[in-house]
Amino acid sequence: MTIAACDAADRDALAAVLAAIPAAHPLTGVVHAAGILDDGVLTSLTPAQVDSVLRPKADAAWHLHELTRDADLGMFVLFSSSAAVLGGPGQANYAAANAFLDALAQHRRAQGLPGLSVAWGLWAHASAMTGHLDATDLTRLRRSGMSPLSDADGLDLFSAALGADQALLVAVDLDVAALRGSLGAGPVPPLLRQLVGAPARRPRRPSVRARRTGRR
Questions:
Q1: What is the pTM assigned to this prediction?
Q2: 216 has which bridge partners?
């Protein structure tokens, strides 16, 4: 097995790595799983924050698309995020970057090329991107209906996604009961509202208006 490291967002560097693949063992599949976080409230995001998140996602994925377009690939898989589908507080740049991956998978399929974007929820195994989450963060996510995926469940979902004829699949461990319990505590993502139903309306209390009278 050969491991070659390069910045996939650097088109020339990536082209050199791909060119070094021996003809006897041609490239047959691509899995793009790169990404970083640089969160911030939308109105405070800087161009540097946007670029730092888009570069490993959008730039690298597009280079892989262009440089392997003529290869006989059996799969072209992009690791996206549920943040692009359901939203994520303070993650506008990250959601946009992953939405690009979702669109790229559809674009490839429209051209007759393999393309699959898997929009992942949180994995239980801490990574460089999620290691900063503490117990409070995880509790908040669980209350919103998002339970972390175990490695075993994640791999099972990945295998299932490879066998599905879809451009985009959302792979999350959704706790519908917890999501229903969170009604009223915050907004429910639009795509999940039909799962939980509309929040119960409180009966309106009759209002009493005081009317002041006086002589002019």
A1: 0.78
A2: none
